[in-house]
């Protein structure tokens, strides 16, 4: 079944919101071209180009033709309707055919005294279609990606260090329970579990942002809820826990009320800006 190219030339107001959301979740131009191929039965380059133009996506035509041909080849669809490029071998064959044809007109008339021998039938060469090699496209890291990633990791490490340091100072209730058990007050120490959980909150946020920005997610509402809803939940818990620990630690170290409550906001703000930058750059990555 073949779709006429005019049927894919829709206007921007005819764009399907489902496709808009799906295309927005794809990281590379090649992924968007393959997604367009899946929406058109037996697609060719022109149909894919017109379909993507509906959603204001205009990839390079040569790159798009390569991706479309690769997609069709994987599904047993060989011809795409594109004009075949003549190779040097094909041109040499055409020249030899023209020479033999012109020579047949230049030969003088001869009287045949006996029927000519039947020419031997040479087997026709078998042309085999070689599958295209697997795509080796890799996303190009945008400018500033390393700075954003380092800023996010530095903010997370500062939060980890502050959370662990806060566990080294017992609360009044902890110290009272320790001494009530017959232990000297100067021998109190936090449990390994408390220190591990104190470090876990910012580490969970770092891992969530890495998964959010690096994984090529499938389009769909459920995947979108898992992607953004889960990261938002982890970020909210990590922000509250880290803020309380850092504010308490600064107060123990002698900061006044303003310093103790404003200091943690610098760390949280750094992580928010860096995470937003990583997310923005991951949405705009293009294949090399």
Description:
- The chain is 61% helix and 0% strand.
- With 288 residues, it is mostly helical.
- Helix 2 crosses helix 3 (45-54), helix 2 (29-39) crosses helix 4 (61-74) and helix 6 (145-167) packs across helix 9 (221-252).
In brief:
The chain is mainly α. It is 61% helix and 0% strand.
List the domain count as a whole number: 2
Compute the average pLDDT. Answer: 76
Beta-strand content bin: under 5%
- Give the termini separation: 34 Å
**Main beta sheet: strand number and arrangement?**
none
Oligomer: single chain
H/E series: HHHHHHHHHH
Low-confidence stretches: 1-10
**Strands, total number:** 0
* Rough outline: elongated
Our count of helices gives: 10
Task: Indicate the radius of gyration in whole angstroms.
Answer: 34 Å
Write the layout of secondary structure elements.
Blueprint: H1 17-24, H2 29-39, H3 45-54, H4 61-74, H5 88-106, H6 145-167, H7 172-180, H8 192-214, H9 221-252, H10 257-283
